[in-house]
Amino acid sequence: MKSGDKLVVTAALPYANGPLHIGFLLEAIQADIYARFLRLSQKDVLYICASDMHGTPIEINAKKAGMEPEKFVDKYWKEHREDAASFLISFDNFHKTHSKENKELSEHFFTELKKKKYIYIKNMDVIYCPKCQRSLPDRYVRGTCPLCGIADQYGDVCEGCGSVLKGTDLLNPKCSLCGTTPHVKSSPHYFFRLSAFASKLKKWINSKSADLQPEVKNWLKEWLDKGLEDWCISRDAPYFGFEIPNSKKE
Asked: Which is nearest to 97 in space by CA: 17, 20, 16, 32?
């Protein structure tokens, strides 16, 4: 490590969905120790983190609490900052994902990637509730796991067998908001062309510069060997998040 290197230290972003848990504090304190060591070694380092404020679980819990999502997440962001400070964790910046800066950066990355043809639109099947008159994110639909047969599972993962699912995979699905049987409909969404980077990632994983643990390398190789799927990066409204630039025109 050269004396002029600029270093960034961070920890996993906790959901602004409830109080901090002990797992986050363990990681944040360990990272804080490392950041303090670097500062004492006269390194140019920033220790940053934030509350993660977007996602279906937040929308669900805000609704349960009878609060608007933005007020709900702000409440927990303030609590997260206070809790971290009470453990003397020395963040240089503890921010939030629902911020002006993050919106500007997200829009910049999206626009640049779209110009380079790494983002495109295609239709995909989504779960739609006719009574609620909305598309249902995976956490808004429950049903029977098609792999192990356990009932009352969310549409993103089966807690019984651990399988990763999609809402359209569930058998006997029900809207978790009203109990109505939803149906599948086609909806246009934005996708990031992740498959275009498969060969570069394989080459990097096998290079010396990757410096990965054998267990991590084997897991990534298994993932890549199955083939990378392009990643859906949009959600149907209503959704608490940033609106995609010019999405209403397309």
From this structure: 16
Query: What are the start-end ranges of the H helices in the chain?
Result: 22-40, 56-65, 69-86, 100-115, 198-205, 214-225
The Cα 116–Cα 196 span in angstroms is 12
- Which positions ≥6 away from 25 have C-beta within 8 Å? 83, 84, 87
73 burial type by CB count under 10 A (0-12 exposed, 13-18 middle, 19+ buried):
buried
Report the chain's terminal Cα–Cα distance, integer Å.
47
Give Cα separations from 243 to 98, 103, 191, 240, 248 (angstroms). Answer: 12, 9, 15, 9, 9
Angle between helices 214-225 and 198-205 (to 10 degrees): 160
Q: What is the pTM of this model?
A: 0.81
Q: Two tokens at 164? A: 């990763």
CA nearest neighbour of 121 among 186, 15, 192, 53: 192
pLDDT tens readout for residues 182-201: 999 999 999 999 999 999 99
Element (H, E) at 158: none
